[in-house]
Amino acid sequence: MLALSREAYDTLVSRARRGRPAEICGILAGTRGDPANVEEVFHAENVAADARTHYEIDPEEQLAVMERIEADGREVVGFYHSHPLGPDEPSATDAADATWDGYSYVIVSLNGSHPFVGSWRWTGEGFEPEVVRLT
């Protein structure tokens, strides 16, 4: 289970809407476990060659954000990105690019009349859906 604070949820949706038509991305901070708790959302620049259909966090920026999270006494819970036109689940590209075993991958999909925020844990071989709870 992934517990999102209301502020974190609102931030994810707002950034996804403002970032359209490109995918937005970033890192989730809080505490890992079951449930994992997301306390803060860190935006990262999408440096993918085609940001409309892919996302990529610059490795130097990713390292800097992760070090900041750890320096603040928190943990990296996972990563997020948006699907401006769907799907409401990880794509084949998302699976091919996933590398962090046991971490949450949150997707904000904007293809319907209301945003969809879902989360999946990467097992090293595939994504397993996890319940998202607002706190």
UniProtKB/TrEMBL annotation:
<dbReference type="InterPro" id="IPR051929">
    <property type="entry name" value="VirAsm_ModProt"/>
</dbReference>
<dbReference type="InterPro" id="IPR037518">
    <property type="entry name" value="MPN"/>
</dbReference>
<keyword id="KW-0482">Metalloprotease</keyword>
<dbReference type="Pfam" id="PF14464">
    <property type="entry name" value="Prok-JAB"/>
</dbReference>
<keyword id="KW-0378">Hydrolase</keyword>
<feature type="domain" description="MPN">
    <location>
        <begin position="2"/>
        <end position="126"/>
    </location>
</feature>
<keyword id="KW-0645">Protease</keyword>
<dbReference type="GO" id="GO:0000502">
    <property type="term" value="C:proteasome complex"/>
</dbReference>
<keyword id="KW-0862">Zinc</keyword>
<protein>
    <submittedName>
        <fullName>Mov34/MPN/PAD-1 family protein</fullName>
    </submittedName>
</protein>
<dbReference type="InterPro" id="IPR053551">
    <property type="entry name" value="Metalloprotease_DSAMP"/>
</dbReference>
<keyword id="KW-0647">Proteasome</keyword>
<dbReference type="GO" id="GO:0006508">
    <property type="term" value="P:proteolysis"/>
</dbReference>
<keyword id="KW-0479">Metal-binding</keyword>
<dbReference type="GO" id="GO:0008235">
    <property type="term" value="F:metalloexopeptidase activity"/>
</dbReference>
<dbReference type="InterPro" id="IPR028090">
    <property type="entry name" value="JAB_dom_prok"/>
</dbReference>
<dbReference type="InterPro" id="IPR000555">
    <property type="entry name" value="JAMM/MPN+_dom"/>
</dbReference>
<dbReference type="GO" id="GO:0008270">
    <property type="term" value="F:zinc ion binding"/>
</dbReference>
